[in-house]
Amino acid sequence: MSGGSEQARKTAEGLEYLTGFGNEHSSEAVPGALPIGRNSPQRSPLGLYAEQLSGSAFTEPRSHNRRSWLYRIRPSAAHPRFTLAADNGALRSAPFTEAPADPNRLRWNPLPDPAPGTDFLAGLWTLGGNGDATQRSGMAIHLYSANASMTDRVFSDSDGELLIVPERGGLLLRTEFGLLSARPGEMALIPRGVRFRVELQDETARGYVCENYGRPFELPDLGPIGANGLAAARDFRAPVAAYEDAERPTEVLNKFCGNLWTATYDHSPLDVVAWHGTHVPYVYDLRSFNVLGSISYDHPDPSIFTVLTSPSDTAGLAGVDFVVFAPRWLVGEDTFRPPYFHRNVMSEYMGLIDGAYDAKAEGFVPGGGSLHNMMSAHGPDRETFDRASAAELKPQKIDDGLAFMFETRWPITATAQAAGADHLQGGYDDVWQGLERHFRA
Ligand SMILES: O=C(O)Cc1cc(O)ccc1O
Ligand SMILES: [Fe+2]
Prior knowledge:
This protein is an all-beta fold. The chain folds into 2 domains: 79-273 and 280-286, Sandwich (Jelly Rolls); 290-415, Jelly Rolls, CATH 2.60.120. 3% of the residues lie in helices and 36% in strands.
């Protein structure tokens, strides 16, 4: 493996990375593999095939145009016919019509442990979502629980990009672009159409996935915050080129318009020796998020914790935002400091990576999740309300947890398996029971 023309950085796992969000990165695993001065020479160096992978239409504005050039042992076109896979397992896609969209507050415990031999792909379980995969709009929320590495099979998602949030166990993502490590506390993103295999770094792995059918995630504008703050572009890491030269049968599973399709290649399609471009996978350590907040009074809206946003066609109205509640100080004076009671036109799915969340005293556990759909009333549970209303307002460090939110402009409809799951908590409404009447006229 080598870093190519950019300066590459090594991490604790010994993996090399290229740094920066949205860069025109380039990398070659064999010196001289990357053509200089053109994308598609008459004969590419080292006898490689040149291939463009477009994540945006050719003609989209430069600011969100995404494409990469891959230099590979065999062109992707050299493959047999795809056939429908026997089933989609527990993977579901938009439009979500199995169950009615539910205005109730819902909360789930973690997924039950999977059967032995369950890999990342087999362990994907769809909770719900919105939009329509064929219209490239909306999103799906999946959870995964796995105890085996993918072997001799790779996955790619034509329907959207995959934002992966490990909660338990590290993942080693072997992609067409090279290797990424994603451990709990980090997030990884696999762009639309990119082939990858997931190997486990620990015995088991568990976490969350946001499948974004819409416009690729980008860094939010900072407005009056200024030129710095929130997630820094330089903290995003892309892989360096690394390839497999394997002439053995490899199953390629492609999620296309909601179904899994399968084809067995006679070689590994992770055979990209060099690449350059902007349509690339990346990882980000959520704890490097520069948390900004109120240093006077009142609890700011959580949009200030946005790591990445997928804009919709209306300015300021995200198809989906990825928001992180990272360790931070609370100093607000005369302020009810935890998240407030509210009803929101946006729909909120929350997950917990570690520890606890400051609006919920109990019941919201790592690996579990809550859904507060469009306009549903929610906020601190009774215990949190009582405690925070009486708390002495000295500076307080919130550093016992890491939570996140997928927030979307469209209501989230649960799948039948999520609406009827044994691990769906009964009695979630009760956390807001017993909020006493304090009114004095
Ligand atoms: O519901 C939640 O816990 C998420 C959330 C957090 C916050 O700080 C303010 C509003 C909000 O929706
Ligand atoms: Fe909320």
